[in-house]
Fold this sequence. Notes:
Order of helices and strands: HHHHHHHHHHHHHHHHHHHHHHH
Oligomer: single chain
Radius of gyration: 26 Å
Number of helices: 23
Largest sheet: none
Structural class: mainly alpha
Amino acid sequence: MVPLLVAVLADRPTAGVPAALGAMFAGINDRPGGRRSSVSRVGVPALAGATGLLTGSLLTGSLLPAVGPPEAAVFLLPVLLGALGLLAGALSATGPVASACGTQVLVAAVIGAGMPLPESGGERALLFLTGAGWALFLRLVLPSPRRTGGPFRYDGEREAVAGVYAAVAGLLRAAGGPGAPARRAALTAALDQAQDALSGPRLRRYASSAAERRLHTQYAAALPLAEAATALAWAGEPLPGRVAEGPERLAHAVRTGSACGPLPAPVRSGAGLRALDDALLAAAEAFDRRGGQSLRTVRGRPEPVALLRRAFGPAGREYGFRVALCCGVSAAVALALDHEHWYWMPATAVFLVKPDLGPLVSRVLGRAAGTVVGAAVFAGFFAVVAGPLPVVAAVALCGALIPIATRHFAAQTAVVTVLVLCLVVLAGEPQAAWGRVVESLTACAIVLLVGHLPLPGQRGRRVRDAVDTAVAAAHRYLRHVLARPQDGAGRGVLRRDAYRSLAVARAALDLSAAELPPVAGHTAGFEAVTGALERLVDTTTACAVHLHDRAAELPPAHAERLAAQLAELDAAHRASARSGVPV
């Protein structure tokens, strides 16, 4: 927490508060993965947060004082924050980075409007970017603790690509057993993570250095292996243990940067095993080519019109309304109660209503427990020590704990609570640990109520949109396999899109199913649709491997199974429609 320490040593502790906030949000937004992908994952939300901090500062510094008496300002501020919440919530529905941006711009706007700091709005925004930029700089230049070889700047990418080969080996070992479906899902997740890690910033879509090109080549060589392993798992028969040794050796070679060495002797007793051995041979040849190829691995950039259509579509509007209600109502309640730290309540509500942090009830319970624990730790710490330097040390410790604490929402809340209370002290405000508890619990109650409040239109639009996208991707994949079975490159792109869309749909459905019955009941009918879709995509992959191997028509068993699963998917659609779930 160097920017905060510099501000304290310069006798400007309040200037360090926005910088510490920027670094805190950067730590929350960062996730394991490639360094270059962290530029967008951390940097873009940081820009949004700085904009929000400037907006909130201007609201209370210039706009509201000009409207008249304080009572009018108290009425107008929740309305303005609610309008900003509507826009931020709608945009959050377009993707994970947009979700982080929407949350950060709104929380920063609330803090900028409520936290009394002597710095101007522009200074606060610049200091916020300084803190976030420092955290991002450290993320880019410090080597990974698990570094095993090669340029350290590709540690995250290397681990992600190695994870794909390890996931292929895991699926091959699980074939024919009850753990195969979970291993197939793990393979999809590993492929998604590697694809994102190799994507990097939008400004540079192609690999430039030899080390990076080699990683791209190794990732591309894993795709046929993943296809063959999925087809073998679909067959439902146990495989010889040595078929998994090849992918395991390749995973080790990626991690260490060493040669893959000799691979097991081929087993070519079927289309799936022949495809696996061919893919292993191609991978070994690719590993031997030291230069590698510059392969484009990023997904196509969504069109702005498509993003806006998704943001202001049914799913975006539903989430935007809930964010607006939570933010506006909590701000109005806090201002009406004349809380000194009124901004805590809407800031807490905005974090709680964020859907990708888990089911709503568990979020609320985790927030409540984490806030109580964090406030108790801070109160005990403040009773023992005094002065700004110990507080700065506590902030630095909390910043170091954030990447670990993000694994559980309650732990993250406890760490963030201590950090925020320390920043309040540095900002010159009286410490209010137990006031923080009361206001956070009030925000929890508001979010719990609004989260289960029926709104105009149908609920479950987020799940419906994800399932519709997955169905469309699956049908594109199937049509391509049947029409152009020898087009391996095109099939690979469509297969990745189908499995990635399917994983998003399954995650959205599982999240909805974990909610209370008033929420979960609106998406229960999608379970049968998603299950049928998973089986259809796996069968399509098995058909693709067979057609590519034989260059002939499908065998009757494959064709019958494919027809049965298409009929099953259609029946699930109709059953969901009859049960009142829109599909």
